[in-house]
Amino acid sequence: MILAGGRGERYGGPKAFAELPDGRTFLAACCDMLAGADCDPIVATLPPGRTAAHGGGVVAVTLPEPGLTMFDSLRIALNAALCRREWEVAVILPVDHPLVRSATVRMLAAADARAAIAVHAGKHGHPVAIAREVAERVAGGELAGPTLRDVMRLCGATAVVVDDPGVHANCNTPEALAAAWREVSSGA
Q1: What's the average model confidence in pLDDT over 71-86?
Q2: What class is the 2-186 domain?
């Protein structure tokens, strides 16, 4: 699931529609990567009043109002995903991390843990994964955060070591994107 409902003030507009140097939007890159990891369903939150079309059965959920917290956006996305077919693990990716590899998602989903977090070079990054029972508790308000980090801590998240600098590539400004693109492209 892709959390892409923010206004993107530091970026100059919603990051879901910002473009990578290869011409894809952040949202398209995230969708492609999750599809490459066989994620189903792929749910993406979008800013109020915005829509996006992307192939591959992506479920776009337009947020009902601006200014929601990321945790509120997560709960909305989880509720949409829980209405779809059965699944065992939700992989949660902020849209400003569009350089993550599909292999990383597959490793997180296979972690056999209530919660898992990607770790590269000794530092936590994104995405994270939560088991369906945790997702149900978050969506229902039983695990109310107030942040996903709090939920991960409560669930005793398992660290999954990955060889993917994209987990740290927080592209929240054009300058951060340029630096992350260079790092990931160089194979660092």
Answers
A1: 92
A2: alpha beta
